[in-house]
């Protein structure tokens, strides 16, 4: 797909609107930032900061200014350099990748972007470091990038010739028994919560909240994802069908805005900024330095169900899909169940689902009717036996427990002296450094589960699977969730379609790491383009039954044309207003982020005011 046509820059802009906008910014307390229509500067261009100016920034941030270069510059054809060899060895370790300010967790996307290190990085340890970096970037017209976990598929935590605000070392986690947001006493009742600094990963939070605190916090499924980025994008975990999105459980944030001010954002203080941070996408409204999230009582059990079925013919596969859709609607369309059913070519259905609040025996009983249906047919074979597992909920992210009882399910950070409580799920570690060929998603409305619509849905899923694999992420649609979870999610910037969707459909593929300069990195672009075309056909089959389906900003097509509507729907005008209020000059830019239509695709040239 071709990216949307760019708007041409206006030759002149009338003075009155600029004055009005400047006055509006002042009235909202954002400050007196000069109106900036300049392009951003690159190294070697007039206006790029001199060495003495970089030195002054370094002193302001306590020496934590890093000059970056690709970790592969030392690599030779023989790959004998020890630093190069060590980096190549650790590329499958997402913890090691995340600890490298030069790298991102995805190495690029075919015909879209490739991972390139920033020119400099401020390795922030406190909000004052972030303030210094933002002020420096604004004053010198620099491209600014923000990175915590670095998991952005669309490359939003990456840009060459930029100044990076790297929050990795801001990773403290603190529990509250009775938290009240600032300025909200008497308006919001005290509640259990957790403070999380911007650079923390979800494994840090789960370890503190669940393993040691015996509480639950709604976060992401991948343990190495950064907390701040996930919350700002919306944020789904395995149990979102019960507790909603991560964004919907944000109680308060500390954020540095484009004027260099450290602001508190909650329901009563900077409420539009607060709303925009809840699903409006990371890196568009400011740099979050702290988040406070509500926590919940743990259920007794968390568990999972896994098995695979292969149908012997297309007719049998259609029948299998139809029964899976019907069974989901009858037995699984409720707050207990999340995660995936995957449909592949060769007539394969793979079930990989998780549950909360059921015992192992209860889960087995729930699935019995479906398994009996399969076993009664001679044209469907269970190729991977049904398995249900459950454990006390406090052990789901307990590394010591998992090493003892489910060692194959996890991959520890295997570097010397690495913390023993940090792990990635084994399947997620395989994605470290991957190079994306194509990635698309669509929210599927719960109306498709109605009895008179199920055949249409099953036929669309069958057609979709003939082109490329598609997975139904049931936890990423909130239809079937409790009323309170849906109500909290309604008060976020996430696309409203999520409230009525029973699942997010995803079709994607990628290849091995392909960082520029990496020895042996030869992405097969011809194959990548074929894969992307197949993914387009897959998703077209689903959009035929879900016209105008929106998609999840973190898991979506880089080349999406109408991305404002696709990501945020009717919420976009309100987000754009928040952007004008808190970042009128567009200091914060990410690909297809709020306000990015005003800039060139690389974020360096202003196209319009």
Structural summary, described in words:
With 609 residues, the protein is of the alpha+beta class. Helices cover 30% and strands 22% of the residues. It is built from 18 helices and 22 strands. The protein has helices at residues 15-27, 51-60, 82-89, 94-98, 127-140, 202-211, 227-233, 240-243, 271-277, 314-332, 360-375, 399-405, 426-429, 454-467, 483-490, 525-543, 563-568, 572-582; strands spanning 65-67, 106-109, 113-114, 120-123, 144-147, 163-166, 173-179, 191-197, 215-216, 250-256, 262-265, 287-294, 296-297, 301-311, 337-344, 348-356, 380-392, 410-412, 423-425, 434-445, 470-473, 501-511. Strands 3-2-20-22-21-15-16-14-17 form a nine-stranded mixed sheet. Strands 7-8-12-10-11 form a five-stranded antiparallel sheet. Strands 1-4-6-5 form a four-stranded mixed sheet, with helices on one face. Strand 15 (337-344) and strand 16 form a beta hairpin. Helix 10 (314-332) packs across helix 14 (454-467) and helix 14 (454-467) runs antiparallel to helix 16 (525-543). The longest helix is centred in the middle third of the chain and has 19 residues, at 314-332. It is globular, with a radius of gyration of 24 Å. Mean pLDDT is 92; it is low at 1-36.
């Amino acid at each position: 797909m071709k990216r949307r046509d760019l708007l041409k820059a206006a030759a002149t802009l009338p003075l009155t609107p600029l004055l009005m906008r400047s006055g509006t910014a002042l009235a909202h307390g954002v400050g007196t930032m000069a109106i900036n229509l300049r392009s951003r500067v690159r190294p070697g261009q007039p206006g790029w900061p001199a060495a003495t100016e970089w030195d002054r920034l370094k002193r302001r941030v306590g020496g934590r200014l890093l000059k970056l270069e690709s970790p592969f510059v030392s690599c030779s054809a023989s790959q004998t350099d020890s630093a190069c060899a060590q980096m190549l060895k650790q590329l499958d370790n997402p913890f090691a990748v995340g600890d490298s300010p030069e790298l991102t967790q995805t190495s690029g996307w075919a015909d879209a972007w490739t991972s390139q290190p920033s020119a400099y990085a401020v390795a922030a340890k406190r909000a004052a470091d972030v303030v210094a970096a933002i002020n420096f970037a604004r004053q010198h017209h620099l491209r600014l990038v923000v990175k915590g976990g670095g998991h952005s598929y669309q490359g939003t935590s990456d840009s060459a010739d930029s100044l990076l605000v790297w929050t990795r070392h801001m990773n403290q986690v603190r529990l509250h028994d009775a938290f009240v947001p600032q300025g909200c006493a008497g308006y919001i009742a005290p509640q259990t919560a957790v403070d999380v600094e911007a650079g923390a990963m979800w494994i840090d939070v789960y370890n503190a909240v669940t393993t040691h605190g015996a509480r639950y916090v709604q976060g992401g499924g991948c343990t190495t994802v950064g907390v701040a980025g996930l919350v700002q994008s919306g944020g789904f975990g395995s149990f979102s069908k019960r507790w909603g999105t991560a964004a919907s459980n944000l109680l308060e944030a500390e954020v540095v805005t484009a004027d260099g001010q450290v602001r508190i954002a909650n329901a009563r203080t900077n409420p539009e900024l607060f709303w925009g941070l809840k699903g409006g996408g990371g890196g568009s409204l400011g740099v979050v330095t702290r988040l406070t999230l509500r926590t919940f009582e743990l259920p007794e059990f968390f568990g999972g169900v896994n098995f695979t079925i292969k149908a012997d013919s297309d007719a049998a596969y259609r029948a299998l899909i139809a029964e899976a859709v019907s069974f989901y609607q009858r037995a699984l369309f409720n707050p207990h169940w999340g995660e995936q059913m995957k449909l592949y070519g060769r007539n394969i259905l793979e079930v990989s689902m998780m549950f909360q609040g059921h015992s192992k025996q209860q889960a087995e009983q729930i699935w019995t009717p479906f398994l009996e249906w399969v076993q009664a047919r001679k044209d469907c074979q269970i190729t991977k036996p049904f398995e249900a597992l459950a454990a006390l909920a406090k052990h789901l992210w307990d590394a010591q427990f998992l090493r003892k009882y489910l060692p194959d399910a996890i991959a520890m950070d295997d570097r010397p002296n690495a913390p023993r409580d940090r792990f990635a799920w084994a399947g997620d570690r395989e994605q470290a450094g991957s190079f994306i060929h194509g990635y698309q998603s669509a929210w599927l409305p719960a109306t498709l589960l109605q009895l008179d619509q199920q055949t249409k849905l099953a036929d669309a899923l069958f057609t979709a699977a003939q082109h490329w694999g598609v997975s139904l992420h049931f936890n990423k649609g909130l239809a079937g969730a409790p009323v309170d979870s849906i109500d909290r999610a309604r008060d976020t910037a996430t696309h409203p379609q999520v409230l009525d969707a029973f699942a997010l459909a995803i079709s994607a593929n990628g290849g091995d790491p392909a960082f520029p300069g990496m020895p042996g990195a030869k992405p097969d672009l011809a194959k990548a383009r074929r894969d992307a075309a197949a993914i387009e056909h897959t998703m077209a089959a689903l959009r035929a039954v879900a016209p105008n389906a929106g998609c999840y900003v973190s898991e979506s097509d880089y080349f999406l044309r109408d991305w404002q509507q696709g990501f945020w729907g009717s919420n976009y005008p309100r987000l754009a207003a928040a952007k004008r209020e808190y970042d009128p000059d567009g200091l914060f830019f990410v690909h297809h982020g709020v306000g990015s239509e005003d800039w060139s695709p690389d974020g360096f040239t202003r196209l319009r005011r």
